[in-house]
Amino acid sequence: MKKKVLINLLVIASVSLGALGLTTLSASASNVKRVSSSYIKKNGIKHRFYRLTKNTKAFIYYYVNEPGAVRDALTHRANIIMPKGTVIDSQFTGSKTSKKVLYGTGVDLSYTLKYKLLGKNRLVGGPTFAINYSSNTVRIKRPGYMLPYGNNVLYSGGLTGFSQFGTYDSNAVKLTSDGYVEYYKYANRRAAENIISAYQKQTIPTSYAKINRSVVKGNVTYLYYGHKLKGVSDSKVRTKGHYQYRLAIANQHTPYRLNNDASASVYTIGNQNFFTFVTGSKE
Predict the structure, then answer these.
(1) Distances (CA, A) of 174 to 45, 125, 150, 239, 268
(2) Which among 47, 73, 163, 184 counts the fewest CB atoms within 10 Å?
């Protein structure tokens, strides 16, 4: 049974990675076409968020970090306790011994939480976990700090980065389901299983901050946290406290699609252009 569940989760994770376009693609500007917001609304990768009302048992699948290795070691499974109050995203459900299971394969958990649960030498690039559905898992609306579609990883480069996906050396900003913003500086390293995968090639953030407040005004999502986030263009708006810095993430409402049907929305963060995958490839 354990082996079957492991295989099922790995299949789900690979489907999720492929659906989000997180494989090496060959694209050019001529392959990129504008699509309507109604297309994204119909086809966009959506989420189901849950909040844990109690400390909850879960399985999480991870790779062992081998410094200097091109790839990480084979998958292992750990029994963990997800803390009360954790927000998770479940894109897939299944069953095990007649119980409904929530599979985390969409929006990632924070590095802070994964480090606490597993330690620094155990890497979970993507949120590959399983939780038995129970009264401990309460469905909630999308948190204000979450983007409406996709895996909430924004890649630098905007439309240029999207059209050259797989060859463009892009940094990334990741928003996690449990309320962190993480910055990843591009590094030439590939992790075997990583929601940023062969593109970002890194599992440990360059910098990160706990989101203490989020405000949505029009097309802009404002995130507030207590310290400077290295690598991004944030603004200092207070002299002390938990809301000292503010990061503005502006949706340009200009979605594009590659010939293979993977689509992305263009955002700006400060004075930089980013994109994030919002639909998967149909190939």
Answers:
(1) 16, 12, 11, 26, 14
(2) 73
The percent helix, strand, coil of the chain (3-state, each to 5) is 15, 35, 50
For the stretch 178-221, pLDDT in tens is: 999 999 888 765 444 343 444 334 578 899 999 999 999 999 99
Alpha carbon distance, N-terminus to C-terminus of the chain: 31
User: Tell me, what amino acid is at 224?
Assistant: Y
DSSP state letters, 147-179: -SSS-SEEEETHHHHHHTTTTS---EEEE-TTS
The upper half-sphere exposure of residue 68, i.e. CA atoms within 13 Å in the direction of its Cβ, equals 0
Q: Are residues 63 and 179 in the same domain?
A: no
Statement to judge: residues 149 and 257 lie in one domain:
yes
Q: Which residues pair with 253 in a beta bridge?
A: none
Task: Pick the last residue of a domain from 115, 140, 165.
Answer: 140
Q: Are residues 80 and 210 in the same domain?
A: no
User: Are both 32 and 160 inside the same structural domain?
Assistant: yes
Task: Sort strands 245-251 and 220-225 into parallel, antiparallel or unpaired.
Answer: antiparallel
Residues facing 63 on adjacent strands: 75, 123
Question: What are the φ and ψ backbone dihedral angles of 182, each rounded to 5 degrees?
Answer: -125, 140
Tens of pLDDT, residue by residue over 244-261, are 999 999 999 999 998 767
d(CA 41, CA 249): 20
**150 and 228 share a domain?**
yes
**Residue 18 within any structural domain of the chain:** no
Residues 30 and 152 in one domain: yes
Alpha helix (H) residue ranges in 119-239: 158-163, 197-200
Amino acid symbol at 33: K
